[in-house]
Structures are given as C-alpha cells and as structure tokens.
Design goal:
7% strand; four-stranded antiparallel sheet; 4 strands; single chain
Length: 292
C-alpha cells in the first residue's frame, strides 16, 4: 500500500482512511442516529483547537463532516454492535465492579458505548488538529537563515540577506564548522573579540530569524489546546451521567432506594476510591425510612 504524505495526500491522512478500509460495511444510518454526539463534540473540539484548523481553512462544518467519517470508522470497528470482544470485556469489567451475578442493562451498555464513541472522536479530532498543524507548517513556516562567512579581497557591501543568498557574488567566502572552531580557539587564546581567518580576513556570523510560526510554537500550541477539551468533555459527560442517575434514584420508592444503597455498599465496601460515596450511603441509610 502507498505510504501517504502531508504534501500530496493530506485528505487521506486526516480522514483516517485505514479505519474505513477495515470496516466490513458502512452504515449511513449511524450519521443520523448520532448527529447530536457528532455536532456537540465537533463544536467543542473546534472551539478549542481553532488555531490549528484555521491554518488549513477548516470551518466548523468541515470539522463536523470529518467527525462523521470518524463516527463511521468507530461504529464499523469498535462499537459494541460490531465488536463482540469489546462487549465481552465490558461485561466482564462490569461484573468485577458490581458482582459476579450482575449484568449490565441495555441502557448501561448503550451509555458505555456512547462514552467510548465520544472519547474516540475527541482523540481523533485532536490528532486531526496535529495533522493540520503539520500541513500548515509544510506551507507557511519558514526557517531561520544563518551562516558564517569570511571577507576576501573582492568583498563589497551587501545586506545580510544578499550575503546568505549569494555570498560569492558579493565577494564573501563560506566558513566551515571545523574552520570556525579553530578560529574561535585562536581568538580565545589571543584574547580577541573579533574573529579572523588564517589569512587575516574578518569572519562574520549572520542569523536571520524567520517571522513565521516556528515548529516549537506549534508544539506548544497543540499541548495547550489539547488538554482543555479533554477535561471539558469529561466534565460534561460526568455531569450528564450524574443528573441521569439522580433522576432514576428520585423515581424509586423508599424501599427501593434503601435496597440500592445497601447493594452499593456491599459491592464496593472495600473500594478505597469510593470511601466518600460509601460513607454518604451509610449516612442516608441511618435516617428513618420515611426520610430515605
């Protein structure tokens, strides 16, 4: 298979063609079914990674379209509907957490699958922004220009740019790195500030910094931007699940609530990560039945 590059195959790279190739069948109905997830995830990631997407001209609608492609890849390869091994692993993990005889409900399976989808889309959009930055760097990012030159008997006045671009035309000679080391060593031994070659001609070092975005600037920008949307999406998901559990708990009668709290304590009493929750559950159970 051809090895794709950013210059000629940018679309194939950011659309993650390898996922689509692995799908046995692409179901277009998923686009409608998960339109809410796609558009909310695309919007949040676009807002947070906009500087990278802007560099290649991507707008929000472009990111939403790309997210739909990622959605099809996830559903075709990793979703519980098409990946029985992934579903079995989730069920095994659920039993470890809730007890050997417990089994996740269809709603819990769908919720877990949805969360996995959102995480997948976040990761792929984050990587897409990195790909965009690399493509943009390919287009607009210049390089610093630097070099070391020695005067000659034919040297005539010229700008730094002219010397770097056409040193011989203006009577300058390029100085190699090894030669420069010897020149500096000799200058230190003689206590001289200026540098001269073996023929006594002055040596100059020229550096013209690029005014475009540097590679390290992109790297810094990516690190800063990619942390925030992850945290934001996790926060949104946690709030969503918490509110959903609250509503389900409110609909239970007093006896059902007590049984659920007792079951929670029995299944997690030795879980050190749930100490606060277990303590709260025990506190609620200590109240009169009518107040639970």
């Amino acid at each position: 298979m051809k090895k794709y590059n950013y210059k000629d195959d940018f679309e194939m790279i950011y659309l993650r063609h390898e996922y689509l190739r692995r799908c046995d069948r692409l179901e277009g109905s998923y686009v409608k079914e998960f339109s809410g997830v796609v558009h909310s995830t695309a919007r949040i990631m676009y807002d947070k990674l906009k500087p990278n997407f802007d560099k290649v001209g991507f707008q929000l609608e472009d990111i939403a379209a790309i997210t739909n492609v990622y959605l099809l890849g996830y559903m075709g390869i990793y979703s519980f509907k098409n990946n029985k091994e992934a579903l079995e692993k989730f069920i095994a993990s659920y039993k470890i957490k809730h007890g050997e005889h417990s089994f996740p409900t269809e709603a819990e399976i769908n919720r877990k699958d949805r969360n996995n989808l959102i995480n997948f889309l976040r990761q792929k959009l984050q990587h897409c922004s990195v790909i965009c930055s690399r493509k943009a760097r390919n287009i607009i990012v210049g390089r610093d220009k630097r070099g070391t030159f020695a005067y000659t008997k034919d040297t005539r006045p010229a700008t730094d740019e002219k010397i770097i671009e056409s040193c011989k035309e203006y009577g300058y000679r390029k100085v190699t790195n090894n030669e420069l080391k010897e020149i500096r060593k000799k200058a230190r031994e003689n206590g001289e500030q200026d540098l001269y070659d073996k023929d006594g001609f002055k040596v100059i070092q020229i550096e013209i910094l690029s005014t475009t975005i540097k590679n390290e600037d992109y790297a810094l920008m990516i690190r800063k931007e990619c942390i925030t949307p992850e945290m934001k999406m996790v926060e949104i998901e946690n709030k969503y699940e918490l509110e959903m559990y609250k509503e389900k708990f409110k609909k239970l009668n007093s006896s059902q609530r007590r049984r659920k709290l007792k079951r929670f304590i029995d299944n997690n009493d030795d879980n050190r990560y749930l100490k606060k929750e277990i303590s709260l559950a025990k506190k609620i159970l200590s109240r009169p039945k009518s107040m639970v």
